[in-house]
Amino acid sequence: MQNLSHLSETDELAQFAMTLADTTDVMAMTYFRKPLDIESKSDHSPVTQADRAIEAEMRRQITQAYPAHGILGEEQDSARLDASHIWVIDPIDGTKSFLSGMPTFGTLIACRAHGVLELGVISIPPTGERWTGQRGKPTVLNGVPCQTSGRTTLAEAILYTTSPDSFDASGLTRFETLSQKVAMRRFGGDCYGYGLLASGHVDLLVEMNLQPYDYMALVPVVEGAGGVITDWTGQPLTLASEGRVIAAASAALHAEAIAVLKSNAQAR
Fold it and tell me: Which InterPro entries would you find in this protein's record (predicted)?
């Protein structure tokens, strides 16, 4: 590991996360669009040897650099979640995209220190795009500051969700009601959509049934670009959140979308 002693703790963690993402990018591309062994996990979601190999290497590097830190990942059991620092990682966010050859999957890396989310990374290996959000600093795309569109109304917003299949019946009804009020809706993207929101191309994302490793890294990226990301009731996302996520390009747009989701829920 390089000498980072001259950096603040947050900057040191961010530098390490960059090194980690460099490794995962290379590994992911060695597997991408190659024959893969696909298995189904207990929740019927797919997993490949790429997911497992990349997470194993991420865990190895984290443990080597920070042996006292905890790790919460998708493919292996959590470790030391009572530690002062917890890394939340997803080796391939968008496995279905990955195994079907779509270049919209990414690696997610987040670090929480003393209960505060310090940084988040969305790295997209096929495109070479990497969004980094760090507490107290603007989000950057490949080192250049970026910001959301700032759109404030549903009528002008571009709405995305990864797949309608991720919603339960009630959630899908609420999403459909919201969809009727926006300028455009599109599907797909996984974590890529949140990077596009941070860069001003997408205005609103609504999803459910996500896990902490799916959303924790997104929070610093979206917030550092001027956006808002919470659960569907407007509460901050935590390791204990139920996985209903909404991200918006502005506080006003977020509030309008939340009002629609709440109104539709109360009407049922």
Answer: His_9_proposed, Inositol_monoP_metal-BS, Inositol_monoP_superfamily, Inositol_monophosphatase-like
Among 44-53, 124-133, 158-167, the minimum mean pLDDT is found in: 44-53
Rounded Cα–Cα distance for residues 50 and 37 (Å): 9
Residues 124 and 203 in one domain: no
148 within some domain: no
The answer on 73 and 27 residing in a single domain is yes
Give yes or no for residue 2 having a pLDDT over 60. Answer: no
In this structure, are 119 and 159 located in the same domain?
A: no
pLDDT given at position 266: 55
Domain that holds residue 63: 9-137
Q: Model confidence over 174-229: pLDDT tens digits?
A: 999 999 999 999 999 999 999 999 999 999 999 999 999 999 999 999 999 999 99
Closest among 121, 94, 110, 133 to 22, alpha carbons compared: 121
| Confidence at 8, pLDDT banded by 50, 70, 90 | confident
Paired sense of beta strands 140-141 and 129-134, if any: antiparallel
Residue 164 CA to residue 178 CA, distance in Å, equals: 13
